[in-house]
Structure formats: C-alpha cells, structure tokens
Amino acid sequence: MKLDRDSKLYDRPAESAMRPLLKEFVQWLSSADYDEEADYGEEGAEEEEKKEEVVETDAERNQREMIEAQKRA
C-alpha cells in the first residue's frame, strides 16, 4: 500500500511504520482467528448503554420535571 506522494500530507516514515502493521493485520484477517460474524467489542458497549439509560441524575430529573410542568401549564 502506497500513500499519495503528491499530497502535502505524505509522510514517508509513517508509511514505513504502517507497512508491517498492515501486513500483520491482513494476515490476521485471513487467519482462522478472525470471525466475520463476531461483534468484537460490541457486547460491553451495549451493556454500558443500558446502565447509562437507567441512571438519571438529580439535575436531569429536575429539568424533566420542569419541562413537564411547563407543558401542563
């Protein structure tokens, strides 16, 4: 993989550093260790979202109550 040499953002040391990492990544993708249907890192994210949804701070509760009171008025 080559970066665009005409670009002002071209960085030869970065390209040299990335080349072995990309080869390693491609080998991992083609190996049996990689499962296309697995959701890597998504299980924990869903659990955290559920926990955050349940918790309502006092400030949020007060704000919600104020908005509901304004709607009723």
Count of helix runs: 3
Q: Which runs of at least 5 residues are low in confidence (pLDDT < 50)?
A: none
| First-to-last CA distance | 64 Å
Q: Percent of residues in helical segments?
A: 55-70%
Main beta sheet: none
Number of distinct beta strands: 0
SSE order, one letter for each helix or strand: HHH
Class derived from helix and strand content: mainly alpha
Tell me, what's the shape? elongated
Rg, Å, rounded = 24 Å
Mean pLDDT, to the nearest integer, reads: 76
Beta fraction of the residues?
under 5%
Produce a short descriptive summary.
Helices cover 64% and strands 0% of the residues.
Task: Describe the protein's topology.
Layout: H1 12-30, H2 42-54, H3 58-72
Description:
The protein is mainly alpha-helical. The protein starts with 11 loop residues before the first helix and ends with a helix. It contains three helices and no strands. The longest helix has 19 residues. The mean pLDDT is 76. The radius of gyration is 24 Å and the shape is elongated.
Which descriptors would you attach to this protein?
elongated, single chain, mainly alpha, 64% helix
